[in-house]
């Protein structure tokens, strides 16, 4: 039987009639980059398995496609998806140096690279742990377990993989490596078992200490009771300690928020400096009542929209936006109803920078893409339609 490589891989997939497949090693190097038309699902799984062990499967879409979920279940991998659909310009920037052959390879590679960048700190942390503990023999397996399972600690995973003399650990290792049973269920069960063991050990130790104190108290002369005033003072101290703990936690959360805001400000500043005439597009998920409501935007006359999925549209939403929205920008081509209601520009023709709920574009790019002309054409088309109805 041919031995399957145990190299952990981060997989990016772009499903469809033509499937884009990308596989990255944990150092970011490309192990596989292909696109195939009408390829069976089983062939995709086999192709990836010949290169190594999939531990993460990534998509460039906010909503995980069923194909990705099926692949993750088949391979025992963890799914990573972006907070919002990746922009074409972002995908082009990520993959430019690697020169994918087509858009399917580009999308799969961009998804894998984005996931790899997010996991790099954890990968480095695992490598440091392996070097410190001298566990080179289980490096690949340790990466596979920790990366594939979001909530398992490195130490716990190492205990599972490095202690084959314990019967429970042998069962766990077999479940994790051979995938005969659900990895997540077994890891959770093992983690709870370890926690219970630690809790029992602490309780036994505490019980011994209490027994010792009771014995000492029985032998020692009776001590005077603590005055009520001292008890009140101690209660105040405990209350102050709790308040300090709450304030410390609040401060820590505020610091995290500060870092996030600083990062968004840096991206915004970079976009503002790089664009000749920065223009704001309000980002919404779809042209439906739900999509508009969940965006959180107050839409005003003359607004420009970046729509993640323009094919999802309702007549009521289109009617409510007509006369308010000046332009729709999207990666995907919208349906006829949307094109009839609003001018449209393909996002691939623009340089875009995503910052939270907005997307920045350069007005010069919009003009080169025909923005002004598209509005005029749209007005003429509407006028002709009204004339024909008379």
Describe the structure using short key phrases:
390 residues, alpha/beta, Nucleotidyltransferase, domain 5, 4 domains, five-stranded mixed beta sheet, 11 strands, 56% helix, extended
- Give the DSSP E fraction (strand runs of 2 or more residues): 15-25%
Q: Low-confidence runs (pLDDT<50, min 5 residues)?
A: 164-168, 174-181, 373-379
Helix and strand content put the structural class at: alpha/beta
Total strands: the figure is 11
Total discrete domains = 4
Kindly state the mean pLDDT as a whole number?
79
What composes the largest sheet?
6 strands, mixed
The CATH C-level class name of the largest domain: Alpha Beta
CATH topology of the largest domain: Nucleotidyltransferase, domain 5
The Rg value, from CA coordinates, equals 29 Å
Distance between the termini: 77 Å
Strand order of the largest sheet: 9-8-7-6-11-10
